[in-house]
Amino acid sequence: MIEVKNLTRYYGQKPAIQDVTFNVEKGEVLGFLGPNAAGKTTTMRILTCYMPATDGTAKVAGFDVFEQSMEVRRRIGYLPENPPLYREMTVEGYLRFVGKIKGVDSRDLKRRVDEVMDRTNITNVRKSIIGKLSKGYRQRVGLAQALVHDPEVLILDEPTVGLDPKQIIDVRKLIKELGGDHTVILSTHILPEVSQTCSRVVIINEGRVVAEDTPENLTRRLQGNEKIYLEVEGPAEAVENQLKGLSVVSMVQREKEHDGRVAFVVESIPNEDIRKDLAKTIVQNGWGLFELRPVGMSLEEVFLRLTTKEEEVSYS
Amino acid sequence: MRSYLAITDRELKSYFVSPIAYIVIALFVLITGIFFYLIISNFVELSFRYTMQAQYYRMAAPKLNVNSMAIRPLMHNMSLFALFWLPLLTMRLIAEEKKMGTIELLFTSPIRTTELVLAKFTASTTVFVAMLTLTFLYMVSLFFFGNPELGPILTGYLGLLLIGMSYIAFGLFFSSITDNQIIAAVATFAFILFFWSIGWMSGFVGPGLGSFLEKISLINHFDDFAKGVIDLGNVVYYLSVTFFGIFLSYLALESKKWRL
To answer: Which of B5, B97, B108 best tests the A interface by mutation, with the highest count of A CBs <10 A?
Structure first.
């Protein structure tokens, strides 16, 4: 449904996103996870035809976002980071307006507006002026706006920001329901949000995709089988066997050999710092230890940042 | 077409839910009214004095023309008031959408930029027409007390509408290149004033350039309308300026979609 290939966007000399590639299948809910300023909003803005990419292509429902942007726009519902609301309008008037410019048939307009107000739980404020609503209501009016023309694709930029815990749960439930009929991309910097709503996750950091997987697999990886890069001077076979014999090591992989040194990547069992044990083993056997460093830290770092952020949000 | 109507409608309503439109319209009508009063009183006094003099010298009283002596200068005044007022109507058109982020909704909806630009233009022009219509009541009052010619009044209003449309078109342009309403208003005002007065420079720059400056000056095409003459050239001039301003706005917005 959505194909993004080598998407790159520069702001002046500074790259916002580089070589971003991913696909979203029809009916899937894709979580777009990354710390603030990672390039989530930029990617979404390109997908919604708000701005062009410097390089690469993106297709929505088979239409190129640049070449056939009208077709793409017709099929997309978009909730930007700041909901695009006209503060002086009433909720209902606003949704009718959005329906009209999105091309909803005038006979269906009233029904559609009623329906999305019902789904996003804002029917009780239908006559209220948007500028007078609380942040939580505004966010939901924004969500209603994205849904009003029943789009095939929904792009939601941090949809749960500013909501209270109960509303967060409601909105997540709503997004989950929307998957199936709709293809959804949802950006967030909150890790548990994706595990609750998404069928697949793309993690983006500093403008690049650093991981793409199901939430379960990512969580497993997150729970920390630490990988260590090791360079040892000694007999390859013997070293490997020794390392495998350690109880805290789950996997040993021989990488390359040169000048009598052997490189390994060693994976620990979850939540165990094995560097001490590795060093001890090697030294006790009288081999030379040339290098010992953790690998894959960038991903770890991303997770770390994500999970630190999570503290701000409370869950019930 | 539906988007065009929807945006025009929304824009007009938003003019009237905020006090801006009421204040702009009311003060425009008020100031025009004051000038109308002053000019007409002056005219009445003058014609009274002439009649007295004529009686004193036992001559026939001269017939003063209310159209050329009162209405025509008033039309000129109004074209200047519009210059002061219209930037205040146009400043918000696009700048506010940018500031509030609603431009993101418009740009990601299946709306053609042409529709957007024309809708914004139409909304402002409609408010301007409302302003003009209200001042027309002053003219109507003249018919109760004298017998002015209707023709020159109507052509004068046509001229006002046309010159106002050119102001609005450029106001729209300056609003579409900034997200700051004050900057939009000031830039519009400065730009229009410059083009309004550019003809005055003609005396200092030599005959060739001079006559060119006179031709492109905004106000030089207005007097014919105030006099009661519809010159096709003048109509074409104002429509071209209007079109040019709208076209620049179109480019400014459309380029957002492909400019890196």
So the answer is: B108
